[in-house]
Amino acid sequence: MPNKENKKILVVDDDENIVWAVNALLTMKGYEVDLSKTGADAISKSKDKLYDLAIIDIKLPDMDGIALLNIFKDGFPQMRKIIMTGHATKDNAINALNQGADFFLTKPVRLQEFMDVIVTQLQKKHKVSTLPPKEGPSV
């Protein structure tokens, strides 16, 4: 697996405490981290840089996090997408996963669980991006 220093993570959340903590932790672990407080800013940043993983809050000031998830799913299918929210319900967890989230985390999240999810999702992205192309049907 490539060095984690090569992995780019976009954190989309308007909660300054969460953003600060996630940025500090991931940067300390060697990841390249960009921060967005709005969906529009996240979309703009993702046009300039290819992210390996996005951590998206459901409640953003300018748009619903699920709408942003769908934009990322359509525009960047190989990006791993984690929904992380303090407004978790069974319905929004199911909806997020059905809409293409690769994982759903509830705030507050334990530090070890958070890092385990990040590492696992980045490993899955690496596996998908290194698979050989599928062969067409035989004739």
Number of domains: 1
CATH H-level name... which superfamily?
Answer: Response regulator
Structural class: alpha/beta
The CATH level-2 architecture is identified as 3-Layer(aba) Sandwich
Spatial order of the strands in the main sheet?
A: 2-1-3-4-5
Give the terminus-to-terminus CA distance.
36 Å
Q: Helix amount, in percent?
A: 40-55%
Radius of gyration: 15 Å
Strand content: 15-25%
Would you mind describing this structure in some detail?
This protein is of the alpha/beta class and 139 residues long. It has a single domain (4-128), classed as Rossmann fold (3-Layer(aba) Sandwich), CATH 3.40.50.2300. The chain contains five helices and five strands, in the order E-H-E-H-E-H-E-H-E-H. The protein has helices at residues 16-28, 39-48, 65-75, 90-98, 111-129; strands at residues 8-12, 32-36, 53-56, 80-85, 103-106. A five-stranded parallel beta sheet has the order 2-1-3-4-5, sandwiched between helices. The N and C termini lie far apart (36 Å). The mean pLDDT is 89.
Q: How would you summarize what this structure contains?
A:
By secondary structure, this protein is an alpha/beta fold.
Please give a handful of descriptors for the protein shown.
globular, five-stranded parallel β-sheet, Rossmann fold, alpha/beta, 5 helices, 139 residues, 45% helix
